[in-house]
Amino acid sequence: MLIERLGAAGRSCFSAASLRPFSSSNAMAKSKFEFAEQHRFAKPNDDRALGLMSKSARSVMEELEDITIAYGQSDEFSFVFKRTTTWFKRRASKLMTHVASQFSSSYVFYWKEFFGEQPLLYPPGFDGRVVLYPTNRNLRDYLSWRQADCHINNLYNTVFWTLVQRGGLTTTQAEDRLKGTLASDKNEILFSEFDINYNNESALHRKGTTLIWEKRDETVSKRIKRPNEEEKLVPVTRSRRKVEIYHCDIIGDQFWEEHPDVLEDDT
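RESULT FIELD:
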């Protein structure tokens, strides 16, 4: 576990923790790619694996309610603590170990919910780091960078595996075909050769997953018995705070304007 770029725990700081999976079997470390291969993840995207990552991230947020937003794509998730958090006295090592352990245990616990009878061959682990960002702009730049990375990687992987699975190329041939290509070139390959409009691909794959806290009104039935009356069911509406999932753009301003409570004011 790597802890880097730590500063004074001031009011203007955010803590962001990024998790990336790795696995180990006996004394030999295995890469995330080997983990995906051995567990037969679908390519270019496995919705079961992505769903499991989101479920684990939700578990982390529900355990640590000072996390205001989480963003995930592929094999990683980033968690943002509100600037005024006092969890674990703002000790980076405690925050990181708690997030990593909760995420790892949730990943194992919910595995069967997403993969059914396919066994988890060995325990996965998650490494990470803690970084402090001084302003909302810095933090948004970080999250924008992660979503831009999601787009770049997914576009490449979509074209690559389409060339292999539908175009009949070997992985080496597909790599050679894509060397030096721009995003426009990749989009053209998909459209002209395979009739695929990349913009119509799943937003989950193109945009990644954003989790935030939101208040939702819920109506429940409550039994009430007044004096001299029979007991009856009465609808009662109450507000409840829940973690909600979005697959949308977080680089532009619209998301932040629609959810102004996600980030505390810089001042």
